Amino acid sequence: AIVRRKKIRGGKLFRMDLSSDDDDVLAIAVMAISVCAAGGILGADRRSCRTAPQNVFAIRNNVWEGAEACADDGWYRKNLRLRRTTFNQIVDFLTKEAALSGHRIPAENAFADMRMRVAMTLAYLAQEGGFQATAALFGVAKSTVIKNVHEVLNTILLIGHKVICFPKSESDWQNIASKFEECCGFPDTGGAIDGSLFRIERPFEFDGWYCRKGFPAINMQATVDSQGRFMEYSLRPGACSDKNLWKMSSLGRQIMTIVPNMMHLIGDAGYTLATYLLTPYEIFDGMPKDERTYNYLHSRTRIAVEIAFGMLKGRWRILKGR
Known about the structure:
alpha/beta, 12 helices, 49% helix, globular, disordered N terminus, hydrolase activity, metal-binding, hydrolase
């Protein structure tokens, strides 16, 4: 069935465990994607985040100091949803990249040093309580959280392309294809692509933001490798279908120069069959066995991207919407 499907192409063209030390860079990549979607959520509603001066208050606590002094992972897992070792590597990575990009790095004796600022950002992304809950967790004013979170997000957005990118060499592409084939025998696959909706608050200008399910959303298209690591993404308003999102994305316009010859991506029936993008056969009663087998193997291979989206929303709960 696969051979037949490749003839149609013309002959040319997870378990994902973000808590393991080997996947620290992946945690950064997923965080960067979360930031992009969170940025869309924040930017969609143009109302001011300011609070009346008489209502600005903060109950100081030593929770963060206690977490830093303790060698246990418990606080980090509960509030930041990652291990302390992973958090340390993210801080080191962001500190280094911020210095290289010319961003100001807070002094070690500053009230909120780089570690605390990154922790605030991760807590904000990992929980559904927003800025107010994050401020209460760290015992600081809400305005402090907003300022620090925005600074860290801006740094992440500038360096996201360094960790969310397609392979640079032919051997890296072949390695991805080999791991996809090990899964269930589907050959020459360079990535799995799909779209997912992220619920947002209704924007002031809401035209085009309502998705097919009837709520305002951001539609995100992403491509992952066999391990569920994000290699590319594109964001559009919720009313944009997967097919149109593909056509408007940089990947859709430049696919022939990105994916090596004789390799392809795999996507669901929402995409159009092409030499570089394989989709399943149309399902109908009495369909041939080889087509049913092809669809089964195609689905087993494509599930990597669905798992990746599930892990993304499960890890960074702000993406579940409000």
